[in-house]
Specification:
The protein is mainly alpha-helical. It is about 60% helix and about 10% strand.
């Protein structure tokens, strides 16, 4: 019967150096370099070895390492979010919780079905599942590492006291996740802040000079608009009069070109008299 991955920590050690050979470089500044040099997967948690190398005077030593768990990464992120000194700064999102349940379940099912397949098939499927587990594990470690490196690369976030404690304190931080009451309190605090911003946005500073100039311009604009409409109406009337004159002149031209009309009779009778 196949044992679980948690009983074989050496499964990661053979490939550990290969997995850490490529480190994400988020900053060319070498005054504070943070990486995860090692990680150990246990049944219900993952322990990350956070390695720090620095030349900053705020730290007691130039190079040191501490062991941290996922909950401590979340705690660090929450400290940044709740600190008003960092308002307006985009805080890197916390790394996701390590989740290897799917891979472990597949390995467990594979172990239960060991007697129904040949040894070659069993070993092949076992290697594939172990490779899948390792890929998920390395991705999880990389995301935790990138979170710390983003903080270390930011000129303001790197100065936070809690960040230095996270990197330097060599004991467990004994942090815990927020309970339901604390989460509701945080939601209420966020809602209150949003309502305050809405109320403040409705307030206006009255400037007498500005209001006077605004009233004058609005009145001036109204009068100019009214004068423009009246000019348009007058122009249309002038055009109508011109069109009428054109029609009258056309009538006279037409009369002048007629050779014999009834008017000649009246004209001739006048001459006879």
């Amino acid at each position: 019967m196949m044992d679980g991955l948690d009983d074989h920590p050496d499964l990661l050690s053979d490939d550990q150096n290969k997995g850490r050979s490529e480190t994400v470089d988020l900053n060319t500044d070498t005054s504070l370099i943070v990486d995860i040099s090692d990680a150990l997967s246990e049944r219900d948690k993952v322990k990350f070895t956070v390695h720090t190398k620095t030349t900053l005077p705020e730290f007691r030593e130039s190079e040191f390492s501490v062991v941290r768990q996922h909950e401590e990464f979340v705690w660090l992120h929450d400290q940044y979010v709740e600190n008003l000194d960092f308002a307006g700064i985009v805080i890197p999102p916390p790394p996701p919780r390590p989740d290897f349940d799917a891979s472990r379940e597949k390995l467990q099912k594979l172990g239960e079905g060991e007697g129904t397949m040949t040894k070659e098939e069993f070993n092949k499927m076992k290697q594939e599942l172990e490779a899948e587990y390792l890929a998920t594990f390395k991705k999880t470690v990389a995301m935790h590492e990138v979170f710390l490196q983003r903080l270390a690369a930011h000129p303001t976030l790197r100065t936070d006291h809690n960040f230095r404690v996270f990197l330097e304190y060599d004991q467990e931080l004994s942090v815990r996740g927020k309970n339901k009451k604390e989460r509701l309190g945080g939601m209420f605090k966020t809602l209150t802040k949003s309502m305050d911003e809405v109320l403040l946005s409705g307030q206006k500073d009255v400037d007498a000079f500005f209001e006077q100039e605004k009233t004058f311009l609005l009145d001036y604009h109204t009068k100019v608009k009214d004068a423009t409409l009246k000019c348009d109406r007058m122009t249309r009337k002038h055009k109508d009069v011109a069109d009428s004159y054109i029609k009258i002149s056309g009538g006279f031209v037409g009369l002048g070109t007629v050779e014999n009309t009834n008017l000649d009779k009246y004209g001739g009778r006048g001459k006879e008299r």
